[in-house]
Amino acid sequence: MWTLTCLVSSLYKKFRINPTFEFISILVIPKDTDMVFENLLGKCNVMLREPECVVVKDLCLQFLLTIVTGTDNLNENPALRHLMSNSVFEPLTEVLSNNIYQTYHGYDSILLLTLLMNVETAKKTNPYVVKLSLLDKEDTLNGYSQIIRWSLEEICQQYRSEEIAQYSNNTWFNTFTSVVSNMLFVPDTIEEHNIELPQEIRSMSGILIALYEAVHYNRNFMTTLTHCHSSNNYELHPSVMQQTQSVTNNPDLKSPSDNQFSNLLVTFFQYCSIVMQDTKTEANANNSMLCFVILSSITDDQFANSLMHDVNLQFKVDLYRSPTRRYMFVPDKSPKPLAAALLDLMIEFMLGHMMKKLPLDQYMKCISIIHRIICYQKRNSVRLCYNWKDLWSSLITVLKFLMTYEHQLSQDINIYDLGIQIVNIFNLFITYGDMLLPSPSSYDELYYEIIRMHTVFDNIYVLSSRNSSAVSEHKLSATKLSNCLINIRAIINHYIPKIDNWLEKNSVTTPVGEEILEVVRNNYDTLTLKLLLDCLGSFESNKSNHDLSSSSLIKLMVSKVVKDTRQSLKHSNTDLQQILQNFSLYANQS
Fold it and tell me: One GO CC annotation, please (predicted)?
C-alpha cells in the first residue's frame, strides 16, 4: 500500500504539470480499469475495518487522500469517478463511531469525507452527500461532532497559550500607552490594529467545511451541537499530544482536560471569536465568512434554536477578544443559554470591525443571524433573559458609523442595505417587544435608547431621504430605508416634545434616566404606530441566494483544502522501518 501510494503521488505530480498525461493507463490496462478500481477500493474497505492494526488504517487513509488530492480541482481528477461508484462512506463512519479509532484516524476520515462530498458527479447527486443526509446513527454523529470539537479546541488552546505569552511580555509602558489610546479612540483606525492570527488558525478550512456539510445536510446532526463530550480522550488526540508538554508547564493555561464536559457549539463560538478578529487577508475572511454561514444554518433550524434557548442548558462561553479592541462592551461571563452567548459574539463582531474597508457581507450575515434569533423568539413566544440594551446600543453605534463615514463607504458598498437590516431589528422589537422582552421595563428601555440617540436616526433619515430623491445607484435601497424608519421617527416626534414640556414644567435642565422613563410610560396611550409587515424581513425568500453564495464560497475554499492536504501528506516523512516493525508486531499477534 505504501509503495502504491508513492507511485500514485508521483504520477499525479506529472499529471498536474501535463493534464494530457494518461497516468491511469500506466497503472492498469484501460479495459480493466473499472474492475481493478472496484477490487482496490474493496480492499480499502476491508483495511479500514481492520480491527487491530492502526498502521493499516493510516496507510489506507493516506492512499485515499493521495488520490483525492491529486489535482487542485476535484472535478478534474479522473480517478474520483471510481470513488463515487465504489463508496468508502460506511467504513469511514465506522471509524468515527469508535472511541479509539476516532482518536487516531478521525481527522483524516472527516477530511476525506468532506472532499468526497464536494465532487460533482454526472448524475448531479453526490452519493456521499446523500448518505450523510440520511445518517442517523447516534454514535457516528457524536464521533463526527467530537472530532470537529477536538480540532477547534486545539486552536482555542493554542490561541489561549499565545495570549498568555503576549500578556506576560507586556510592560507597564505598554499598558499606559494602551490606556491613552483607549481615551483617544477613533473608529476608522481599528483596521490598523488587528492581530496577526497564527497559521494553524488560518488553515482550518477543511474542518469548517466538514461542519458546514453536517449542519447543512443532516438534520440529525443538530442534536450533537449541545451533546456534552467527556474530555477523557482529548489528551490522546495526535494533534493535541504535540502541545501537551508546553501546556502542562504553564500554570496559567487551563487545559481542556480540566473541564469534565464540553460541547461542539460552545467550542465553535469560542473559535469564531478568534477567527473573526482578523478579516484582512482572503484566507481569514473566507474562514470568518464560512463561520457566519454555519451560524446562519444553525439559526435557521427550529430544533437548534430550541436547544440554544433552553434555560436548562446553560454554559460558560469564554469569547476571546483582541487586547487592542477599544470598545466598552464586556459580556457577562456567567453560564447562560447559548442564544445569549451567540448574541454576545455578534456584538463583538459588530463593534470590532468598523473600518473604512467595511466587511459588508459579513456584517449582513451578522445582522441576519440576530434577526433569525429574534424571529424564533417571536414565533415561539420565548423571552430570553438578556441585556438587550447592549444589542440596541451596538446597532446604533454601527448606524452612527455608517452615517459618519457615508462618503467613503458608499463608494465601494451599499450601506443602505445594511441600514435596512439594522432598522428592521428595531422594528421587530417595537412591534413585538411585548412578546420578546423579559419585562415591561425592558420595553421602556428600548424607547429610552431610541429617544436618547434620536440624532443618529434623524441623520440616517435625512441621508436616506436625500439619496432616495436623487439620481443614485442606491436610490431604491435608500427609499426603503427611509420607509423603514417611519415608526422610529414617530416615537421620536411623539416623545421629544413631551420630554421638553416636562423639563420646562418641572424646571429641570439635566434629567436623569428614570425621569425620562417615567415620561415614556405615561405617554404610550397617545402614541400611534404602523404595522410595517414589509419592513420586518423574511429569510425564506433569500434562501436560494444564500445557498448560491455559500456554494461559491465552499468551492473556493475546497481548492485550498486540497492543496493544503496534499502538502501535509506523510510521503516523505514516514518512517518505513517503523511501518515494517508495526506490521511484524501485528503479524505476531495474529
Answer: cytosol
What percent of the chain has pLDDT above 70?
81
Identity of the residue numbered 158: Q
Distance, in Å, from the CA atom of 4 to the CA atom of 23, rounded to the nearest integer, reads 13
User: What's the per-residue H, E or C state across 85-124?
Assistant: HCCCHHHHHHHHHCCCHHHHHHHHHHHHHHHHCCCCCCCC
Query: How far are the Cα atoms of 229, 270, 300, 435, 446 from residue 432, in angstroms, in the given order?
Result: 38, 31, 20, 5, 12
The residues near 9 (Cβ < 8 Å, ≥ 6 apart) are: 66, 70, 569, 571
Residues of the chain with pLDDT under 50: 182-195, 202, 231-260, 540-542, 544, 590
| End-to-end CA separation in angstroms for the chain | 20
Answer whether 345's CB lies under 8 Å from 274's CB.
no
pLDDT at residue 209, rounded to an integer: 95
Report the C-alpha gap between 233 and 243 in whole angstroms: 15
Predicted TM-score (pTM) of the model is: 0.86
Of the candidates 11, 124, 106, 8, the one whose C-alpha atom is nearest the C-alpha of residue 61 is 106
Report the distance separating Cα 190 and Cα 327, nearest Å: 11
CA distance 576 to 395: 59
Burial class (CB in 10 A: 0-12, 13-18, 19+), 64: buried
Distance CA 274, CA 269 (A): 9
Cα–Cα distance, 349 to 291 (Å, whole number) = 12
Q: What is the pLDDT of residue 535?
A: 60
Q: What is the pLDDT of residue 186?
A: 42
For residue 12, give the amino acid letter: Y
Domain ranges of the chain: 1-134+553-588, 147-167+202-226+261-383, 387-535
b vs e for 200-211, b when ≥16 Cβ sit within 10 Å of the residue's Cβ? ebbbbbbbbbbb
Q: Which residue shows C-alpha cell 476491508?
A: 46
